């Protein structure tokens, strides 16, 4: 989730701490009263409420896990009710989401002791995400517009008519939310497009590396599956000093989260035990508490829709509608380019274009900052897009130049919300294809199936056609040689139906082969997860239960592949001998109760640093991840990287492997003792499910922390990604499958769902973290049942009425 990458400012924590200090200093009776009052501030989930604008009565039945099953006579009322329950359970999350997209975080969290929120606001204002969201409202069809309108009405009805206090975050910050708008919902899609299309950071890093390394060395750092031509800066840029300026810009740009990843596979009826398709999907994003996702089901006379929603958005992002089911993974195509623009030496308000100098489009943005004066930001745009180098200060690139970002996700003529609305209403596979052709950004790989048995995959989105260049480094903007000439037509994008082998599998690996005639990307995610899924599927038939188990698989193929190479080198006697003895008998399973995963990941972490840090210098931090492909490439084809450039000696790969193991084991011993057999992966690999404000506060931090030790690793299907550059917690599980779904087209009521935390965003709610263990251990829920069945199972019933019936009127 994007929000979690914006740390809190010191004043926020000070204010929270003062509030708690007051509570703790009061007599126990008052403390008990405060705690009781806090527990009492729960949304109303039973009885009857009037909801203005409803056309008919709506019943919201919350099951034992707090999942709302909304029974309504018409769809529009269903959207109103969804907005209402989203606001009841996740209002703070919704508030932070829209403020992030609008560039208004600093209004709430301030910047006196840290400028992360202000950096984020500057970026969002520069990119103009919220302005684009506002402009997109006019593109919605009448039916889609009615859905977004109704949802906003539901949110605002809650804000106007709630009986309970606002969530504790609002109280501690002294903040009250504004009314909800359609643009507040639409901006989430823009945020996801930005996070899932982060190629521009890679372009900046490559440009900086090319100032100190050869083209071949840069290729060594990013080895790809298909052969690539060496990456080279354009002739016009080779003499420009892109190094220091680009480094400052990389530091100035806020980190929008870890690398994104997801899994999906679809089986035809010929490959299932039911004779109908099965789809498995688990999107991987940054972990947080509460998690991004919120489960919900809406039942109308026309049908049912169930699955994963995002608070703030009226539509189901993932799931099924009783007729079709679908899942997403990110394509990782290259849909962003950085253009180096040349400023007119006689007039700084103009920049060079192929047909002469043109004026920048400029506007001023006022950013309000809590506790200090407003900041005025001047945003400039060129014919390619917004100037992002102004974020660090004028002319961060070489003097007389700026960097502009071209990205379809910034477009105002973005029909992605309409595509999702139509996908939610698709009756069959053909309707799915028709709906998603409207999708703009980010490009996604969508698997889908219908009850008739058709299975397909399609990768919709705007993919630029470049006149020249491959999109991997910044290019000159003044010549026109590298301009985009349009976008790939929808019929040329990757798509297929009913595969002969009975399966589609994608885990962010290359979606196309070498024979694909167009360029989607030059770099693809490591194919290990996809290969493991294919290995598990084999040529057998599978059940829904099989798919759910496969989602939890924890075998690391890179560990199996790389360990024989590492273990062939001699190691020092003592603890290193003990550790490698454990690894020789290991099957690559990243189990939380075993020492081998911890030893291997620590070794790989140090080996990546030992091999690459000396050549990369200050740029290594931006490169530091588990680079198993790059290391395999070094051992097989480029052993020169093993020499430490900072020493007069010439080190071999054997030297560097042993050194990295010694360093890793010394570090692990300090934290876990000197006996490797007693170490456990789970002691350091814990899912970071913590509240981004309250986790920093004494007392409340421990009360709200849902963190739990987990299996899996960076390369496993059950992904447990870490942030190696974090010296305090390099193996913490910060990124993974916050949602899992398995859809049974033979009986969609038999589909399985789970999220990582719980439905509520209130830490004192029973549904704050009641799904954590279920999620960690591979359990799931079924979103099904008629009114009678749910009532018999103990569901709470909240009746929303369009008029006052005299019962619990607010």
TrEMBL record:
Active site: 262
Organism domain of life: Bacteria
Entry's cofactor comment: Binds 1 Ca(2+) ion per dimer.
Listed CDD domains: Ntn_PGA_like
Binding site for Ca(2+): 203, 334, 337
Signal peptide coordinates: none
Bilayer-crossing regions: 12-37
Swiss-Prot/TrEMBL keywords: Calcium, Hydrolase, Membrane, Metal-binding, Transmembrane, Transmembrane helix, Zymogen
Required co-factors: Ca(2+)
Molecular function terms, GO-annotated: hydrolase activity, acting on carbon-nitrogen (but not peptide) bonds, in linear amides; metal ion binding
The family this protein is said to belong to: Belongs to the peptidase S45 family.
Protein's UniProt name: Penicillin acylase family protein
Organism of derivation: Azospirillum griseum
